[in-house]
Amino acid sequence: MVVAVDTPTEVPASVAPVASTEPRHLSPSSAVVFEQCPRRWRFRYLDRLPDPPGEAALVGTFVHRILERLLGEVPAERTVERARAIAAEEWPAHRDQAEVAALGLDADGVRRFKWQVWQAVNGLWHLEDPTGVEVVATEQRLDVQLGAVPFLGVLDRVDATADGVVVSDYKSGRAPGGAYVADKLEQVLLYAAAWRADSGTQPKRARLLYLGARSIEIEVTADRLDQAVGRLHERWDALNDCVRCERFEPRTGPLCAWCPFAAQCPEGSREIRRRLDAGLVPPHAPAVRHVA
Ligand code: SF4
């Protein structure tokens, strides 16, 4: 959690005023939520309304755990067979977590879940040979100042290469295209900036590893880091303005149909209904049930 605030005792039917409490940290993921919709950010990070992770997020968590252990092995042991053994060892603990149990997977669901996990883990070998990686750190918590922004995040992996340090972020979802690539790269550039702030070493490259699909990579330069931190700064200022003014405007759009807080958001509910009527939302989108 990136902010420490009082949790309201009651969920408002509409959007009630919020106690103005300064956020303590900003993570790349909370910055993205704020950018998508300030109202959604408020529900999640100030009001702390329940936002249970879906199947895709829990698949991603399990994949991260397997790869963290795999890359912790001596290089020669980082094999497909070892990855399979780690997955089998880790599965009971993962399966028994409350959030996974809450998915209510039947036998077919479990098979589908494991299949998605394995597609992602096995996909690492499509991108690189893990036996040739010199690992510096995995799942590195970074709690640093980036300019005036208190940054908090967990960096998936840091490697040493012949020409310098490389920071990597694993992704188990579909690789982005077009204009979305720059947004995704900005997140990993922030991790590069945080690593520089923490270690004093500027990474040479930053990578997004879309497991089983492709690797998207950018050369890290001081200018790029400064620009990414500058934009983070703008979000941080905007976010604090919202908190001070107790105004979190809804940013309605296609994502409303996937928003876990649509039932608490009159504007979002209206947007979903409008899109449904226009045939712009698939009826199985998760938030549709709130307006049916
Ligand atoms: S329903 Fe839409 S407008 Fe409302 S909080 Fe969610 S994303 Fe924002």
Report on this model:
A hairpin with a 2-residue loop joins strand 2 (149-161) and strand 3 (164-171). A five-stranded mixed beta sheet has the order 1-2-3-4-5, sandwiched between helices. The protein folds into three domains: 55-127, no CATH class; 130-235, Lambda Exonuclease, Chain A, CATH 3.90.320.10; 254-292, no CATH class. Helix content is 45%, strand content 16%. The protein has helices at 28-36, 38-46, 55-72, 80-95, 98-101, 107-122, 124-127, 180-199, 222-245, 266-277, and strands spanning 134-146, 149-161, 164-171, 205-210, 214-219. The protein has ten helices and five strands; from the N terminus they run αααααααβββαββαα. With 292 residues, it is an alpha+beta fold. Residues 1-14 have low confidence and may be disordered. The protein binds iron/sulfur cluster.
